[in-house]
Amino acid sequence: ATSLFNGRHLELYERPVSYQPGDPKPVKACFTILSRNHDWRSLRESMKQIEDRFNHRFNYPYVFLNDKPFTEEFINMTRSMTQAEVYYGEIPKEHWSYPEWIDQEKAKRSREEMDKNKVMYGGSESYRHMCRFESGLFFKHPLMQQFDYYWRLEPGIEYLCDINYDPFLYMKQRNIRYGWTIGIFELMNTIPTLWDSVKKFVKQHPETIPEHNSLWWVSRDNGTTYNGCHFWSNFEIADLSFYRSEQYTKFFDFLDREGGFFYERWGDAPVHSIAAALFLQKEEVHWFDDIGYLHPGWQHCPSGDAWLQNRCTCDPSDKDKTITNADWGKCSREWALLPDTPPNYRKAL
Ligand code: GDP
Ligand code: MN
Hints:
Keywords: Transferase
Order of helices and strands: HEHEHEHHEEHEEHHEEHHHHEEEHH
Number of strands: 12
Family: Belongs to the glycosyltransferase 15 family.
Strand content: 5-15%
InterPro entries: Glyco_trans_15 (IPR002685), Nucleotide-diphossugar_trans (IPR029044)
CATH superfamily: Spore Coat Polysaccharide Biosynthesis Protein SpsA, Chain A
Bound molecules: guanosine-5'-diphosphate, manganese (II) ion
Shape: globular
Mean pLDDT: 93
CATH topology: Spore Coat Polysaccharide Biosynthesis Protein SpsA, Chain A
Pfam families: Glyco_transf_15
Number of domains: 1
């Protein structure tokens, strides 16, 4: 049959891929959402967005994790937002408590000190357990064992454009192991000694550093100092074999021993990002700059063809919200300056 449309229109309206809820998927993947019982209302907003923009066609399952048992209300209110399978899991105690080597009195004093100094979440104990869990433990949960890739969702986020392809498959086909959409500076008063610990680890394990990594993106002086650039981990799509690898496991265990998750307030975002920048080849890390995404505070808004074709509703030129226009978003912009095969920084560290 002859089409009335030209090729461009066909591209726009073709919807060749669609998987049903129970279907085997081309990638064993899921959404993972760490949540508290009271988060259900804003999670319904997040789920509405990701379902409308993407998942009503792809039907990837959801895994909800909580340090407390989920309430029936939470389960009903979230399950009803999707046709895809949903799983609810409680986090084992040992993944949400103090390791025996942590001095809890010292941790408490540091929380009080950071609270006094108005460090963001500086006084919060639960936020620290959350960051430690998201840094190195979530992928060990029994419900996660059936999956090879994951996409992190949070309460209160928005997807601002249609996603008409399967990002999991996109990654798998190209051997991409870490995907991000917002790059931003870290609050350095949450991680005073993180980079020192990273350097100690790298000295002990130089074999974990590939030749063409993205070190330049996180350090402009060949590894002496950390510039604070990180991928905002409230959105991330990752190959779980990266987190489950010997090198990442050793890295997390080392940082955990250093104590900074409790004596400072190390976030999972800089921890994941530094690992991705150091341990992966640059080409294994992908900026999904066609995915429009908002987490309270900042958004990434695609421009050009992608904006039009994917029915974006955000304003790429917004000065207040769009990260690539902001000083804080220098990290996003400068990713583009990194060559596909960056110079060999291995000897520098
Ligand atoms: P922010 O994005 O850094 O401001 O932190 P959020 O408050 O969004 O927390 C990050 C993620 O961890 C979200 O998915 C929260 O629902 C989840 N979270 C934070 N604190 C807790 C907690 O104490 N228990 C559980 N189960 N989830 C938490
Ligand atoms: Mn959040």
